[in-house]
What does this fold into?
Amino acid sequence: MKRSLLFFLMVPLILTGCNMNDDDSKTQPNPDKEVTGTLGEDPDVMVTNLHAPWSIQKNGDTMYVSERTGTIVEWDKDKMTRQKVNLKKTLSTKAEAGLLGFLLAPDFSKSGQAFAYYTYEEGGDSINRIVVLEKNDDKWQEMETLIDGIPSGDYHHGGRIKIGPDDKLYATTGDARKPEIAQDIDSLGGNILRMNLDGTIPKDNPFGNSYVYSYGHRNPQGLAWDEAGQLYESEHGDSAHDELNKINPGKNYGWPEIKGDEQKPDMVKPLTHSGENTWAPSGMAYFDGKLYFAALRGEALKSYDVKSGKLTNIISGSGRVRDVFVDEEFLYFISNNTDGRGNPDEKDDKLYRLPLSRLKGNMP
It folds into this structure.
C-alpha cells in the first residue's frame, strides 16, 4: 500500500492510545485524535528497499544505513550497494535484535573504521557487544571488541551508539526484560554507558571503574546533545509512559521504581512523557532548540521544544520511523516497516531527506 506523507506544523500533538508501547506488536495510530497542519512539500526519497534499517550515518556525500539483518547499505551519487558485515559471532535473529547501532569513526575517511552494536547468539544465550568494524572495498570486517556481555534476551536491547562533544563513545543498553538490573550499577543493562574510543573506561566517569554514566533506564534508543553539550535521551516506557530525559552523569532515572510523573528520592523524572499513550521513541537528533525523535508505534517524526516543552508532529504517513540524522543542511530519517511489525509498501523501507531551512523555527 503506497502512503502519502502528511506534515504537521506548530500544532499541539494529541497522542494516540494503545495498550502497550513496546516495540513488540503492530499498532496503527488513530488519525481522528491528531490535529494536522502542513510543513510544505514532501521530503525527498533518497533510498528505497531497505531491509529493517536501524542507524543512519553520512560521510561527505555518501550515506550509510545499517540493517538488522547484518548488512550496511551505502548510497553514493544515486548508486546503492548492500555490503556484507563479517562478524566474529553469530548474529541474532530474535525480535528487536541484530545489527543495531552503527557509527562512523571520526577518522573514517582515512581509517575506514566504524563502531557497531550487535546482538549475537552463543550457547543458547543472546548477548550484546560493541565492536570496531573496518571497511575494505564493499565488505565490513569486525576487528576488535570494545565491550562485551551487555545483557540481551528476547527484547529491550537499547542499541544506540554516538560520540559526544567530549569525544567519548556513548551507548544505550536495555534492561533485557529484567527490570531489576536497571537499578544495579554493577550491571551493563538498563544504562547509558560511556567509554573512550578504544573501549577503556574514562577516569571521569561517575562511578569508579565503571562504564555506567546513568542508570534506571528501560529501553533507551535515542541520544542527542545540544549546542551547550547537554545530553538528552529517548526511552520506551512500560505500557505507555515513553520518556524524553535530560541526562546528567551518575543520575538514576527511575525504572522500574517510578514512571511518568511519579517521584522518589534521588530519582529523576523525565522532561516529558507520553502519559497513557505511546510513541515507542527511537533515534533522536538536535537542531535549533528542538529534539527531533523517531516514533515507531507512534508512526511519526516528532519534535520537542526544549525551552517551551511543546511537542509537535512533524511528519506522519511514512509508517514506523526508526532513526533521525542531522547534518549542516538536511534532516534525514528512515522508515522501519519491514521488520515484521509494520505494513510496508512495495518500496519500503526508505531513507528520506528534508532541508533544515524548512524546520528552522518550525516555519515553512
About this structure: The longest strand covers residues 139-151. The CA atoms of residues 242 and 281 lie 7 Å apart.
